[in-house]
């Protein structure tokens, strides 16, 4: 009988107030691609960090190839054949690919490292130029560098933490080819994700975590989405109803908006045109870092450098208006970053209402207005109740809430203002499945009530669920929109690398050519 | 083995306990210091903690020194809460005193008591003008306000010594670097007979209440603080960071200038090169020991005032150097910063594994 590559028994790790892992056991066979499935906060990352030696468990045993082992730090892990590719890359922007890889392998010369990068890259079809500086790479290419760096240590066990969250569908396919080849050579892979279809395609075994405990071990290829969801969240997510509806008048019009980047690692916006009408949800898909942040700053008014006439709400030119002025015209916005932008972490929920709401303000002429504390707290309590936010009350600090609950509060705060135009970025990023379904439901309810909604998201599934029309943003340019009925994952995926054919507009040909050139780098 | 563990949320007890523990540590180190200097530690502590409060006259003197500290600190706390690091309050204080003196020197024997009002307003204007330099440079060129405001302190000191050693020097003053004594009409009204306390004490108390209202009950105060703790959230909300910068510096400059006016036309009664006593810097410690809170700063201002008086006492009665004041102030801030760890962390004892 073959010994398991990795065997964990009774792993427990507690932090003050929360048990991250409770009596977790996990067995991975050689050459097996094993999924670790669970919601955010289920304890997946803690478990992986324990295996990788960056966290010490309170109790439990770890065996590698049958031998009990205690790993004190990531260096020991690598020496024992365990490598990890993190969700957030550890690369220095100003150094080249080869120099970044070289950092971890100080004993070899830079030339040797370059040679071995090229060899590995050829072996696995991971095309990369070792001489390129990291800041010129796309996100997919950066991940390739991380994978090559991991492979150079000749791992027997490779851990990947949510590797596809930053990739286009086509890049995901390429990644899967590499992972399947690795597995066929006998390398074991631990694949962390909450995307069920990926797990089903790639993995033959799966350990499901919920609340730090193992709730099931199964073969995902023999399970349905519903049964995996039940293991993961204890219930099936409610189905959304997307009723057909005829859009009304134009609430926001962006015409030919071009804007130079504000910080040097940002993206220039080029000729963006976009309409959002009453009673429709317009989605913008795209891999992060392609201009979403810059576009949203311009639309919300946090960046009011947009040229005159480029952004209109109804008949009014709002290009130069500040966020407060746009808000009073009915534009409410939920930003991607919840802590620090959408909410102040160290202030109470009640005080966080004051960021965008003025219901509890009296005498606005005097020092910005008098805060009626009782009214403010009552208002916060209403939102907490109406949007089913789990919080200690209006006095609870924003940072004490889980990501999902804080997002429900922020979305609630903006929806409660009865916006005529609602813009939301990454509405369910890092939010558990139950809260995500609720937030998507709220977005659709808002649309059905006649609000114009713009959703920017990296999750294609989500956009397909809520949108009426889809745009794609790539390298600061926006694709034409496509009705959701005519959109396919393949088409949108292709557009995500900038490859759309533009039928309209004067500079269409130039845009396509430029996109095609860049696309070569992105997807080669 | 000692181990620090992050708390789930800040400890309410230690928010208040930490300044008290810091004071205790300061006292203990003080005792060691007196022993090392060959003095009776009890006598030493008496100078710092008993002499300043043993009689009503002593209490009055305590308030005389606490008043400028508190007024400057109130203004600075607005700056620090909005993350505008104005550490040049000493310069704003000096320029405020110069402006106030300019008005006071215009008075003659026939001037009425109304002159006090323009004197105070001139002080505020002077402090604001000096702080405006910092705000302007930061606004236009993004110049670091820590450096600019600090450097401007030294410029202000030069302006002071030029004036009192040149154009404003008292001709009958035996060449001392000081102006003539101000006319009686210019003196800030005193609160009680036999004490040097002026209405400045009332102004400081009112200022403390007004600051509480501004910070915790007005939207402008709220906006300012959001800009300090979460700039991206302030931008998202649409609170102007430029307005926050100017408001914070105008409030703190005005407060420091007012303190300068109250001092120069109050207990001192003339402008001299001995005016700067480090209140502008000591007020920074007052702000942090008082937790940037309008009420907390009242207590910390009184404590810092005790250190000032204690230092003078230790010099005259025990023959120690007056620099002990600075040593105690530093000790207090240092131990407070250390004790503040307990607010967010709990200490666990564990056997080394």
Q: Can you describe this structure in just a few lines?
A:
The complex is a heterodimer of chains A (524) and B (353). With 524 residues, chain A is α/β, with parallel strands linked by helices.
Based on CA inertia axes, which overall geometry of chain B fits? globular
Average pLDDT figure of chain A: 86
**Discrete helix count of chain A:** 17
Shape of chain A: globular
The second-level CATH architecture of the largest domain in chain B is Orthogonal Bundle
User: What's the number of domains of chain B?
Assistant: 2
Query: What amount of the residues of chain A lies in strands?
Result: 15-25%
CATH class of the largest domain in chain A: Alpha Beta
Under the CATH scheme, which class of the largest domain in chain B? Mainly Alpha
Supply the CATH architecture of the largest domain in chain A.
3-Layer(aba) Sandwich
Q: What percentage of residues of chain A falls in helices of 4 or more residues?
A: 25-40%
Give the oligomeric state: heterodimer
Number of distinct beta strands of chain B: 2
Task: List the uncertain runs of chain B.
Answer: none
CATH domain fold name of the largest domain in chain A? Rossmann fold
């Amino acid at each position: 009988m073959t010994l398991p590559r990795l065997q964990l028994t009774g792993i427990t790790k507690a932090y003050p107030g929360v048990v991250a892992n409770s009596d977790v056991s996990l067995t991975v066979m050689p050459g097996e691609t094993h999924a670790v499935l669970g919601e955010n906060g289920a304890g997946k990352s803690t478990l992986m960090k324990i295996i990788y030696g960056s966290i010490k468990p309170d109790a439990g045993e770890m065996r590698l190839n049958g031998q009990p082992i205690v790993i004190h730090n990531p260096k020991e892990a690598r020496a024992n054949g365990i490598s990890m590719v993190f969700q957030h890359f550890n690369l220095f922007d100003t150094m080249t690919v080869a120099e970044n890889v070289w950092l971890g392998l100080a004993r070899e010369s830079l030339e040797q490292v370059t040679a071995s990068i090229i060899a590995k890259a050829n072996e696995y079809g991971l095309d990369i130029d070792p001489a390129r500086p990291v800041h010129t790479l796309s996100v997919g290419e950066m991940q390739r560098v991380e994978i090559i760096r991991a492979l150079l240590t000749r791992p027997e066990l490779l851990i990947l933490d949510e590797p596809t969250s930053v990739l286009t569908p086509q890049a995901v396919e390429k990644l899967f080819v590499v992972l399947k080849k690795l597995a066929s050579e006998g390398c074991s892979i631990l694949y962390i994700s909450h995307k069920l279809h990926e797990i089903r395609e790639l993995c033959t075994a799966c350990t499901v975590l919920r609340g730090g405990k193992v709730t099931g071990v199964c073969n995902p290829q023999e399970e349905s989405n519903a049964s995996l969801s039940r293991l993961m969240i204890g219930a099936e997510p409610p189905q959304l109803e997307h009723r057909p509806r005829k859009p009304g008048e134009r609430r926001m019009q962006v015409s030919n908006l071009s804007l130079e980047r504000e910080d040097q690692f940002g993206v220039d916006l080029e000729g963006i045109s976009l309409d959002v009408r009453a009673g429709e949800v317009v989605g913008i898909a795209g891999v992060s870092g392609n201009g979403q942040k810059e576009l949203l700053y311009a639309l919300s008014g946090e960046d009011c450098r947009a040229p005159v006439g480029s952004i209109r709400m109804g008949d009014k030119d709002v290009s130069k208006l500040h966020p407060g002025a746009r808000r009073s015209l009915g534009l409410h916005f939920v930003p991607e970053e919840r802590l620090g932008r959408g909410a102040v972490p160290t202030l109470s929920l009640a005080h966080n209402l004051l960021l965008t709401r003025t219901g509890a303000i009296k005498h606005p002429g005097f020092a910005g207005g008098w805060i009626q504390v009782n009214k403010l707290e009552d208002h916060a309590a209403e939102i907490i109740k109406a949007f089913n936010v789990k919080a200690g009350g209006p006095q609870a600090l924003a940072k004490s809430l889980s990501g999902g609950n804080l997002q429900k509060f922020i979305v609630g705060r903006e929806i409660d203002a009865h916006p005529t135009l609602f813009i939301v970025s990454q509405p369910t990023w890092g939010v558990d499945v139950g809260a995500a379904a609720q937030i998507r439901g709220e977005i659709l309810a808002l649309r059905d009530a006649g609000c114009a909604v713009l959703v920017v998201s990296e999750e294609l599934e989500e956009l397909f669920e809520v949108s009426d029309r889809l745009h794609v943003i790539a390298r600061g340019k926006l694709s034409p929109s496509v009705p959701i009925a005519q959109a396919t994952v393949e088409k949108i995926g292709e557009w995500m690398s900038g490859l759309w054919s533009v039928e309209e507009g004067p500079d269409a040909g130039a845009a396509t050519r430029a996109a095609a050139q860049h696309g070569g780098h992105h997807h080669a | 083995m000692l181990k620090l563990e992050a708390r789930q949320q800040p400890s309410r007890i230690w928010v208040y306990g930490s300044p008290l523990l810091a004071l205790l540590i300061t006292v203990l180190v003080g005792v060691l210091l007196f022993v090392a200097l060959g003095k009776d530690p009890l006598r030493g502590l008496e100078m710092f903690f008993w002499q300043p409060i043993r009689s009503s006259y002593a209490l009055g003197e305590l308030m005389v020194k606490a008043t400028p500290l508190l007024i400057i600190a109130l203004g600075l706390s607005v700056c620090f809460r909005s993350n505008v690091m104005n550490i040049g309050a000493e310069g704003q204080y000096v320029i405020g005193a110069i402006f106030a003196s300019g008005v006071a020197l215009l008075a003659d024997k026939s001037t009425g008591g109304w002159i006090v009002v323009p004197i105070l307003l001139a002080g505020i204007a002077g402090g604001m003008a000096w702080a405006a330099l910092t705000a302007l440079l930061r606004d236009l060129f993004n110049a670091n306000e820590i450096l600019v405001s600090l450097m401007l302190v030294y410029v202000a000191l030069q302006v002071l010594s030029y004036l009192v050693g040149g154009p404003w020097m008292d001709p009958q003053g035996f060449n001392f670097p000081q102006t003539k004594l101000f006319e009686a009409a210019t003196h800030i009204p005193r609160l009680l007979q036999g004490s040097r306390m002026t209405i400045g004490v009332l102004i400081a108390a009112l200022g403390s209440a007004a600051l509480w209202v501004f910070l915790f009950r007005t939207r402008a105060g709220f906006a300012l603080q959001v800009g300090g703790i979460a700039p991206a959230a302030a931008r998202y909300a649409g609170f102007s960071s430029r307005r926050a910068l100017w408001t914070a510096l105008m409030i703190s400059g005005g407060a420091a200038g007012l303190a300068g006016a109250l001092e120069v036309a109050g207990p001192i009664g003339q402008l001299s090169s001995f005016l700067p006593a480090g209140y502008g810097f000591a007020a920074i410690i007052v702000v942090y020991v008082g937790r940037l809170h309008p009420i907390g700063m009242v207590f910390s201002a009184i404590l810092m005032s005790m250190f000032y008086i204690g230092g003078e006492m230790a010099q005259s009665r025990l023959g120690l150097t007056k620099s002990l004041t600075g040593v105690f102030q530093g000790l207090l801030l240092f131990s407070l910063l250390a004790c503040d760890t307990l607010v967010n962390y709990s200490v666990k004892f564990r056997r080394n594994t």
